[in-house]
Every structure is written in C-alpha cells, then in structure tokens.
Design goal:
The complex is a heterodimer of chains A (443) and B (295).
Chain A: H1 2-12, H2 19-34, H3 42-48, H4 52-69, H5 79-113, E1 149-154, E2 157-163, H6 167-176, H7 208-227, H8 231-244, H9 249-262, H10 265-268, H11 289-306, H12 311-323, H13 327-338, H14 344-360, H15 364-377, H16 382-394, H17 398-406, H18 431-439
Antiparallel strand pairs in A: 1-2
Helix pairs in contact in A: 1-4, 2-3, 2-4, 2-5, 3-5, 4-5, 5-6, 5-7, 7-8, 7-9, 7-18, 8-9, 9-11, 11-12, 12-13, 12-14, 13-14, 14-15, 14-16, 15-16, 16-17
Chain B: H1 3-13, H2 21-25, E1 38-46, E2 49-50, E3 60-63, E4 66-67, E5 70-73, E6 80-87, H3 95-109, E7 116-122, E8 126-133, H4 136-144, H5 154-163, E9 171-178, H6 189-196, E10 201-208, H7 215-224, E11 228-231, H8 237-249, E12 252-256, E13 265-272, E14 279-282, E15 285-288
Parallel strand pairs in B: 6-7, 6-9, 9-10, 10-11
Antiparallel strand pairs in B: 1-2, 1-12, 1-14, 3-4, 3-13, 5-12, 7-8, 13-15
Helix pairs in contact in B: 3-4, 3-8, 5-6, 6-7
The chains are: A mainly alpha (443), B alpha/beta (295).
Chain lengths: 443, 295
C-alpha cells in the first residue's frame, strides 16, 4: 500500500487535475480541522458523503498536499497546485503536522463508527480485476481508491459480498506519515503474508506521543472491526500493524485473536457453504483450523514474551493447547492467568478453559470447581452452567447436573450474558472503552 | 457430597436402567421374575422400512461381548417422552419458522394421551422452555411463541434437551432440528456423546441437506441409535417429524439384566438379528451403575 502511494506521489505532485480536486481537498481539510472526535458532527457527515468521484479527486491532490505537509520542497507549476500547497501550509501551522494527521485519522475513524447515522453512499468503485494465473500480487490501488471485496456471512452462512471500507487504508496511510521511513525491502515475485512484505516504516523511531497514539489507534480500530465482524477490513489493518509495530504486545495479541477466530467453527464451516465457491477469486481460501491455531499459538507466545502478565493471551493460549491435547501445559497456563489476577471476563474465560482441561483429564471434581468459579463471576452465564452440569453428570451427580441446568433463566439469554459468546470478538469486547480512550487522545 | 449419596442419586435418577413397573407389567411377553436392569430401544429395518413381528429369539444382544438373555417389551406399555430441541437462530425466519412450528405440532398430534412432550429451543442461548408434560397444549403454545434470533449452539441445546430426560421414567425420543451448523456452543461433540451414554434417550436430528455439516450430529445420533434425516426444504420438516415418530413407535424395546459382565463402566452394546439380513440400530452403549457397596 505504501509502495503504491509513494510511486503515485512522483507522478502527480505538481499536476492537480482541476478545480473539483481543490474543492474536495478544501472540504476535507475543513472537516479535519472542525471535527470533534467522538461526535457525529458536520465534519463526519462531509466525509461520509464522499463518493468514489470525490475520493478520486482527493487522491489527485493528496500527494502534493502531504509533501507540503512534510515541509518537503515542491515546485508548483500552476495556480491550482499553488492553492493546494497553501492549504497544506496552513494545516502545518495550525494545528500542526502531527496533530492534523492524527485528527484526520480520527475523522475517518468516526466516519465509519457513525456511518449508520448518515445516508449510505453507493459504492461506485470499479471491482478488482479477476485473478490471473500468475502468483504475483497485483499492485494495490491507492488507499483512497480501495476496491477490495470481502465475503459477507452470518452464523456460518455466506450471504454475499461486502466492500472494503476506504476510510481504514486512508487513515493508516495518514498515520504512516508520522513514522520515519526506514529500510525499503520490498521483495518481488510471489510472496504472501506479512513476514515477506519487508519493512517500510516502523513506529520505533517516532516520538513517544505519536507512538502511543498510533498504538492505541490500531488497537481500538481492531476492537471496532472485531466487534462489528469486519474481519475483511481487519486483515489488512493487522498486516499493516504488524509491519510498523512488530513487537507491540497488543498488536501481537490482536493478530493472534484474529487467527484464532478464523479457526472457530463459525469460520471453519464457511468453505462447506456452496455459496463460498460461487465467488471464485474474491475471497482468500480460509486456512484450516490446525493452521490458524498454530499461527495463533505462535503469536500468543510471542505476545507473552513481550508482556508476560498478559492474562488473556495466556487463557487463549490455554484453549488452543487444550484443543491439541496439551493438557498439562494448558492447565499451567490457566493457573498462571488466574494468578495475575485478571478482569472478571478474562477470569471467567480462564475458568471455562480450566474446566474443559480438567474434564479432558477426567478430573470431574476439578472441572466442576472451575465451572462453579466461573458461575460465581457470571451467575447467569450459560456456558459455565452447562459446563458445570456436564461435569456433575460425569461425576454421576445427576441432581447437581439438573440443578445447574435449572439455573438457566431469562437473564441467561440476554445479549452479553456470557463472555464466551463474545470470545470471537477478541479486543472487540472492550471496544467502547478503547474508542473513548482514543477520542480522549485528540491532539 | 459423599460417594454413597451419589450412588443413591444415580439409582433414583436413571430409572431406565432399573426395574420399572411398565416393563414388568407387560403381559404380552413371558417375563420371568428376574430383574431386568437395562432397556435398549432397537430399530430394525429392511432397506428403509421398519420390520415388525420379531420376538426375543430373533435378536442377539451382546453386552461387552457377552450374549445376554433378553426379553422384548411391548413399547405400548412404556410411555413415550418426546423432547423437541429446535434451532431458533436468526435464519429460522419466515416460512422456515412456520414450517418448523407445523412440524412440531404434527409430532405432538401423533402422541397418545399417556405420552408426554417437552420443548427446548436454542440459538446461541438455550431456552429450556417446557419440561416434560402431559399437557401438550402448553407445548403448542410455546411453539407458537418461537422468535428467531441469534447464532446457533446445537450442542448446548441438545445437552439441555437431554437433561430433561434425566430423573424421568419411560422411553425418550429427542428430536433435534437445525438448519445450520454449530457456531457458538461451549460444549463439544465429544462431551455430548459422553452425556448421551448417561441417558437412555434416542436422538434423531433433522438438518438441511445442503449444509453437509452434520458429522457431529451424526456421531451423536449414532451413539444413541437414532439417525440424521436431511431435508431439502423446510416444507419437508413435517413429513420428517412424522416419520421420526412413526419410526420410533416401530422400535423394539429389549430388556435384560446384565450377566457375565462387570456392572460399572462403559458397556458396549451390539444388537443383531442373526438369521436375517436386516439393519439394526441401537445405542452404542451405556454407563453401568455399580451396586452400592455395603458399609
């Protein structure tokens, strides 16, 4: 993405196409300056109303605008370019380059967060070209002209397609402006996955304040994407996060959760849906559970190396270990997570996993104890009650088995009644706190 | 809780594994006075058609490999308990919901006055709506109130339906109906199969044929001697439910008191009709209850 952006800058830096480009840029700059993060204000409405043509106009002048914002010397050749440069200079002076870029990222974040409050804009982006026999990835479009398609599904069924949201790659590209460029090491030829994409920019060399903002933005946006099931958008988001913050524990955790989620039944059943195969070339093949879990396990372990007290990473690692029969290590991970001690939802999940591990070891009394502890934390939560009932039944205590089931109530069916139901959300479980925290970071 | 009390509770809660009135009261078969501890629901088919008219000498039942002396109980003498476990996730809307309710009612229509029915629904949340009752109007009313929403937790739903058969007497039929796959259960298929060994229920499942996602359900139904029926549209649900009830009524009930095997642990069951080429379906086994030790 960054490579394409840089190349485009050379071509268009001094050649705005016309007044329409400038008008859109003026609207955008005004919106960035006026937006109050976390509010559904007129600035958000402006961005939410951008059609493909508007984005295309903005794209035409963005490289020049950013070059001036970086205080790079540019030679404008016409009045239009001069006016674009003037706009960038005013932004550089007020609110300042870094503040402008952060505010812009927040504006585009809020344009997605509050999208439902504004009229939907039809997608007019040209669809991506069909895949070619060559294994070489085609160059991606500029961030403003993102046109990827993702699979839309619900409860294990393919429903159709969803279009990638352009606000995310654009916001990422703006935040990239805060990072110092380092070694460019983009490999050529067939190469997939973040490990072989090279490192263009990393957050390591930037200021502590910018690094903190960027880190929080990536984590909060991941939470938003997970909470809203936008795993397609999350794919690129996390790939980019991994490139610029490869040793950030939260990024490692988010990436691990993403891999783990792909291994859950709700995703693993998708290839069995006949609708999946009617859209050849649009969706990447979903890796099998073994592969996704192995990747998740590696990333959780990495996160724990960086941050040994990361309790939820330990709980999730324990669940994966249990899945492949590593019961002793899983039990130790549960104990270590509970020793932290973690927040209630994480402790609940730890006890659930602990119950399952004990059950697998045929230690039914121990399993029952774990499930009882989980029920103490969330008295109406269904998973803990059913786990306890099952453990009691295995221990031949039919009366207790029935008692736990009888404790299921209307409250057990309430949304958010059981943290297990939110397991696939990963950081999305805390999306409200994270988003409010992000908005408070407004520069 | 002491170990001794646990044993007492098992005995009280699993009457299907113990002598019960209806079995011994049957006059249609020549029962001896010996204790008949285990009861096994058996379906015998020739192709797709149930086979009737068989008697005890036609069957061979092995309990952990040891041939047992069996008797055939008249199923009419044992009350039937039918538990509906219905998927009410968001996809069960419109015509699917209408057809599902109609299918449930059709099954209730096929019950006799001595039979009972119960209802559990599941999306990601499980609702044990109606425990086993002879007042079928209550079940009908609950069927009408089904509201589709949420994801699908098949295993959790089936487990709750199974537990409604614990501590009850009679024969137990659990009819599971789902149009998708399990996306949100906490309980795992292997755990549920363990649970089925502690009940005497026969599980039938009705699923969407297009889904091809029923391997866990198939394992579970096989473990109980039931089966999975696949339908191509919700319009076929009613016929599927009626077929299940008819098939269940055509099953044989074999009863015996285990001899030559240890009482406790898992008992692997094999039921055959040796002298004829017929298909026999029965539960794969059961967990035996050890006799209470004298203090």
């Amino acid at each position: 993405m960054i490579a394409a952006w840089t190349m485009a800058a050379v071509l268009s830096v001094s050649d705005p196409q016309g007044s329409a480009d400038l008008v859109v840029l003026q609207r955008w700059v005004a919106a960035v300056k006026e937006h109050v993060p976390g509010r559904r204000d007129a600035a958000v409405a402006t961005v939410a109303s951008f059609r493909y043509a508007d984005r295309s106009n903005l794209n035409s002048v963005m490289n020049l605008f950013l070059a001036v914002l970086r205080a790079e010397p540019v030679h404008t050749k016409n009045d239009m370019a001069t006016r674009v440069a003037a706009l960038a200079r005013t932004a550089r002076e007020n609110p300042g380059r870094a503040a402008f870029l952060k505010r812009a990222a927040l504006l585009h974040t809020d344009a997605v967060v509050f999208a439902d409050d504004f009229p939907a804009v039809p997608d007019e982006s040209p669809p991506p070209p069909p895949p070619k026999p060559s294994r070489r990835e085609p160059d991606p479009p500029p961030p403003l002209l993102t046109n990827e398609r993702f699979m839309l599904h619900h409860d294990g069924r393919v429903l159709g397609e969803a279009v990638a949201n352009w606000n995310w790659p654009f916001a990422r590209s703006l935040l990239d402006e805060l990072l110092p460029a380092t070694v460019h090491d983009v490999p050529s030829g067939p190469c997939r996955g973040v490990e072989c994409m090279g490192v263009l920019r990393q957050a390591g060399g930037t200021s502590a304040a910018d690094r903190a903002f960027i880190g929080h933005w990536y984590h909060a946006v991941t939470a938003f994407l997970f909470a809203n099931g936008r795993h397609g958008d999350a794919t690129k988001h996390l790939l980019h996060a991994a490139r610029i913050m490869p040793e950030d524990a939260r990024v490692l955790f988010d990436r691990a959760c993403y891999s783990e989620t792909l291994g859950l039944p709700i995703y693993q059943v998708l290839p069995t849906d006949p609708q999946t195969w009617n859209r050849n070339g649009i969706f990447p093949l979903l890796p099998g559970e073994e592969k996704t879990n192995r990747e998740a396990e590696k990333l959780f372990r990495h996160a724990l190396e960086v941050s040994p007290g990361f309790a939820e990473a330990r709980v999730r690692l324990a669940r994966l270990l249990e899945r492949r029969g590593q019961h002793d290590e899983a039990a130790a991970a549960v104990d270590a997570a509970l020793a932290v001690p973690p927040p209630a939802a994480v402790a609940y999940l730890a006890h659930l996993v602990g119950g399952r591990v004990a059950h697998a070891r045929q230690r039914y009394d121990e399993a029952l104890q774990h499930y009882r502890e989980a029920s103490t934390l969330y008295p109406d939560a269904q998973s803990a009650l059913l786990g306890a009932s099952q453990a009691a039944l295995m221990a031949a205590d039919v009366s207790a088995a029935l008692d736990f089931v009888h404790r299921l109530s209307a409250r057990s069916q309430m949304e958010n009644g059981d943290p297990w139901w939110e397991y696939e959300l990963g950081a999305g479980r805390d999306v409200n706190d994270l988003m409010h925290g992000l908005w408070r970071l407004v520069p | 809780m002491t170990r001794r009390l646990v044993v007492v509770l098992i005995a009280a809660a699993l009457p299907a594994l113990l002598p019960s009135g209806p079995i011994l009261a049957s006059q249609k078969q020549s029962f001896s006075s010996r204790t008949l501890g285990v009861r096994v629901d058996v379906l015998v088919t020739d192709g797709r058609n149930p086979v009737g008219g068989l008697s005890a000498p036609d069957f061979e039942l092995r309990d952990n490999g040891v041939v047992q002396r069996i008797e055939v109980v008249d199923p009419a003498d044992v009350p039937l308990n039918a538990v509906l476990a219905l998927d009410t996730s968001a996809s069960i809307n419109g015509k699917r919901r209408t057809d599902l309710v109609a299918a449930g009612e059709a099954l209730l229509d096929g019950l006799t006055p001595v039979d009972r029915a119960g209802l559990t629904t599941f999306s990601h949340a499980v609702a044990p709506l109606i425990p086993l009752t002879g007042d079928l109007s209550v079940v009908r009313d609950a069927l009408q109130r089904i509201t589709p929403e949420g994801l699908t937790a098949v295993m959790d739903g089936v487990y709750v339906a199974l537990t409604s058969t614990l501590a009850q007497s009679g024969r137990f039929l659990v009819v599971v109906c789902t149009d998708g796959t399990d996306t949100s259960s906490w309980l795992q298929p292997a755990e549920l199969i363990e649970a089925t060994r502690r009940t005497n229920a026969v599980i039938y499942a009705v699923t969407a044929a297009a889904a091809h996602r029923s391997s866990a359900l198939r394992e579970m139904t096989d473990a109980t001697g039931g089966q999975v029926l696949q339908v191509t549209s919700s319009a076929e649900l009613r016929a599927a439910f009626e077929r299940i009830l008819n098939e269940f009524r055509s099953r044989y009930v074999l009863a015996y008191s285990p001899e030559g095997v240890e009482a406790g642990g898992f008992h692997r069951l094999e039921v055959t009709v040796p002298r004829r080429h017929l298909t026999v379906k029965a539960r794969a086994g059961y967990i035996g209850v050890e006799a209470r030790k004298q203090p």
